[in-house]
Amino acid sequence: MRNTPVLILAAVPAQLWAQATRPDIVYIMTDDHTAQMLSCYDSRYVETPNLDRIAARGVRFTRSYVANSLSGPSRACMLTGKHSHKNGFTNNEHGVFDGSQQTMPKLLQAAGYETAIIGKWHLVSAPTGFDHWEILPAQGDYYNPTFIHQDGTRAVDSGYVTRIITDKAIAYIGQHRQQQPHKPLALFIHHKACHRAWLPDLDDITLYEDRTFTHPSTFLDAYAGRPAAAATEMEIGKDMDIVYDTKMYAPDLAPRTPLTPNYLAMIGRLSPEQRARYDAFYEPLSRRFYARWGNMRSFNPPQAATAPGSDEACLLDWKYQRYMRDYAKVVHALDREVGRLLDYLDEAGMSENTLIVYTSDQGFYMGEHGWFDKRMAYEESLSTPLIMSLPEGYDRRGDITEMVQNIDYAPTFLEMAGAEVPADIQGESLVPLLRGSRANADERHRRSHWRDAIYYHYYEYPAEHAVRRHYAIRTDRYKLIHFYGHDIDHWELYDLQTDPHELHNLYGQPTHAALQADMHRRLEALQLRYDDPQR
User: Fold this and answer.
1) Counting beta carbons within 10 angstroms of the beta carbon of residue 432, is it exposed (0 to 12), middle (13 to 18) or buried (19 or more)?
2) What are the tens digits of pLDDT across the range 229-275?
3) How is the chain split among helix, strand and coil, in percent rounded to 5?
4) For the chain, how big is the Rg over CA atoms in Å?
5) Distance CA 426, CA 472 (A)
6) Of the candidates 61, 69, 75, which has an alpha carbon nearest to the alpha carbon of residue 386?
7) Reduced to 3 states, what is the DSSP secondary structure of residue 378?
8) In principle, which of 189, 300, 436, 492 could form an S-S bond with 238, CB 3.0–4.6 Å?
9) CA-CA-CA-CA torsion for 339, 340, 345, 347, nearest 10 degrees?
10) What would the DSSP string read from start to end of 204-234?
């Protein structure tokens, strides 16, 4: 991207030379894309060859976590490098991000970077700290989405949102290369995929229909000893809407569910030609569904109570298969578009000096514990994929096993940009982990003193899915969670080595009293360190 001849660069002052050789940053973040549905992490369900290219060129973090498993709060943590209670955006229901506060994009601007964001924002207030932005309103739409432009105008782009965001990103990179070839770029590409209700690209609508997905081992979890888990409302059986989520809509047959208007609004954005393609697939499927299941008293069977082989068990499996197939289709389009972006960066000669980051705002349940959605401090939603293709000067390759969090992205980008990391940022720069053999003495020291626990805090209750407020500590082997509020005061303790699926709550058992006391001490130390007033 910055191919100024060497003879000219030799006459450039040292400060300008450092600025000219700093890496570009391309940060790709999806919504609700869980590691189980990324084949460089888990090959059971889908293939993601283009996303896997990023990991193959660089690193894969095997213990990557979020600070708050919810879309808006997770984004605020990434932008600020601070936990939710410090950046002020704790929940989607009532949150408005304070754009006047210090953010990583603003600090990159001050360090001489061009900054831009394209795609999902979901922080209510207008973006700040970006030289260019085009964002989706709220959650955005899969089909023919509206974009809000920096001047406040709105316009509808025709097509599928994942392709459109990629088109806009590639166009912006090309424009930047022409207009400011010597200025480093930090581009944030935020996809709507893979958010509910998993509407596929029309070109992919028939994919995965011949695939039968295996249930996770915890699919029929009865939540023994875990009242907070039992009280949630995100079971595939009883909480997944038959119209909105599985798309079983035939005007003369489908029930009027609470989310039917939302579904009709989503597909109402399709043009007549697009709608004909959509209906050609989903309407016959819907009619077959109601012919088979139309006499059921409820389309929402409870999971743990279903008898094997019963109509309820068959319906439960049918809903799971529809969920997995539609989600997989959305991932397929996403992988294709990431591949197109990677090809562009390769062809433009940018890949060697660009940090390419791929992650999601949190993990997601693909039937584990019988659930869809996220929010809980259990592993599937606490974890998030994180893979990086590294620029020149960073020689680490393969798996990185240290525990990292999304509050670490801000200080990482700032250090790689040569900018000072403010003392109030709570995350840790990943640079010592990325340098590998090239790390200096200070970086080796920081790496050897890496964190041994991460802190998590979820706030949004009462709200959709009824997940109770809770905070947690996760160490290398153990996890302690406290669910709190006006209707609950419950602790859970897990040994992740012997109980990786978090089914057996050890809290209160005399044989684990010493462990329990130690975890309480470590939790309180983290709350003190991060200045969380909950302690």
Assistant:
1) buried
2) 999 999 999 999 999 999 999 999 999 999 999 999 999 999 999 99
3) 40, 15, 45
4) 23
5) 17
6) 61
7) coil
8) 300
9) 110
10) GTTTTTT--PPPPTTTT---TT-HHHHH-S-
Work out the average pLDDT over 146-168: 98
b/e string for 311-326 if b means 16 or more Cβ within 10 A? ebbebbbbbbbbbbbb
Given a cut of 80, whether residue 61 has pLDDT beyond it is: yes
User: Cβ neighbours of residue 509 under 8 Å, at least 6 residues apart?
Assistant: none
* Largest separation between any pair of C-alpha atoms in the chain: 81
Phi first, then psi: give them for residue 292, nearest 5 degrees. Answer: -85, -40
Tokens for 6?
């060497």
**The pair of three-digit structure tokens given for residue 464, joined into one six-digit string:** 């959709």
**Residues 19 and 417 sit within 8 Å (Cβ to Cβ):** no
In whole angstroms, what is the distance from residue 117 CA to residue 160 CA? 18
451 forms beta bridges with none
What DSSP assignment string belongs to 134-201?
Answer: EEESTT--SBS-EEEETTS-EEEPPSBHHHHHHHHHHHHHHHHHHH-TTS-EEEEEE--TT-TT-PPP
Which pLDDT tens digit goes with each residue over 289-317? 999 999 988 999 988 777 888 999 999 99
Q: HSE on the CB side for 367, CA within 13 Å?
A: 22
Tokens 């997940």 correspond to 467
DSSP assigned state of 363: -
Interacting residues of 272 by C-beta distance below 8 A, sequence separation 6+: none
